[in-house]
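Thread amino acids onto this structure.
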């Protein structure tokens, strides 16, 4: 049995007119205003965004005004992906024009990005846009960008999005090798502050994977955090690292015991996984 969707009269009227304009390939100020009305009713309507972009190009609308308008829509629709994709399209259109490109200053993006992430520090769509922004304007080593991600981690050490962005800043460019030792030290420092934070452990392990480093170097760091003779270990992630170190070194008995402890004592939520890993030794 199918159920009818109860659209409002206003929504049906706007969308009916929008369809007519689309079919007639109408590109004018009236059509532009209509897309604004449609997006106010349903900001996630992909076809409307594409139609608006075509109109903007056809009528040669001021692209900087379009960016300003886009910011207002973004602030009212925090979880919308299409807004950020659309913003990329507008900026790319600006950069195609030599004269407009001279007027564009990438610093104009910082206020809206900061405002959005202050509202929701883990907004995936905004972080994805920020990654594109860094890549597009080669900002991996920009002081503002690095200071921002540092401040986000100071505010919330468990913000996985901020950790992911930091990894991209430090290791997403050709000259990444110079950051390896500094970032290993940084990750260790943050782990000591919060030993049971998976984000900082993922960051540390990610560095070793990126640099193809010897994970065995982490043994002396992990052992105090995973002292199973104590009443309670400080970090199950440290015990996991030790298990992986022993596995890589061929110490199957030690690795098996660590995986058993993870399964039965320290991380029973993932018991099936640890049991499986133990059986693969």
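Threaded sequence (281 positions):
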């Amino acid at each position: 049995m199918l159920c009818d969707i109860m659209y409002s009269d206003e929504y049906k009227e706007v969308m009916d007119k929008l369809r007519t304009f689309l079919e007639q390939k109408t590109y004018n100020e009236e059509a532009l205003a209509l897309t604004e009305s449609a997006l106010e009713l349903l900001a996630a309507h992909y076809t409307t965004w594409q139609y608006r972009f075509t109109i903007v190009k056809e009528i040669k609308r001021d692209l900087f005004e379009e960016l300003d308008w886009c910011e207002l829509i973004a602030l009212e629709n925090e979880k919308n992906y299409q807004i950020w994709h659309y913003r990329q399209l507008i900026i790319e259109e600006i950069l195609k024009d030599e004269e407009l490109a001279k007027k564009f200053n990438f610093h104009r993006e910082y206020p809206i990005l900061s405002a959005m992430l202050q509202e929701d520090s883990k907004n995936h769509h905004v972080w994805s846009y920020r990654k594109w922004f860094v890549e597009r304007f080669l900002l991996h080593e920009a002081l503002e960008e690095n200071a921002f991600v540092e401040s986000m981690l100071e505010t919330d050490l468990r913000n996985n999005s901020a950790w992911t962005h930091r990894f991209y800043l430090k290791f997403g460019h050709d000259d990444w090798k110079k950051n390896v030792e500094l970032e290993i030290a940084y990750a260790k420092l943050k782990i000591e502050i919060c030993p049971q934070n998976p984000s900082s452990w993922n960051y540390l392990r990610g560095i070793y994977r990126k640099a193809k480093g010897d994970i065995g170097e982490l043994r002396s760091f992990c052992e105090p955090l995973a002292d199973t003779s104590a009443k309670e270990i400080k970090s199950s992630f440290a015990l996991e690292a030790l298990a992986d170190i022993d596995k890589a070194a061929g110490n199957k008995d030690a690795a098996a015991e660590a995986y058993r402890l993870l399964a039965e004592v320290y991380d029973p939520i993932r018991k099936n996984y640890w049991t499986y890993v133990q059986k693969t030794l």
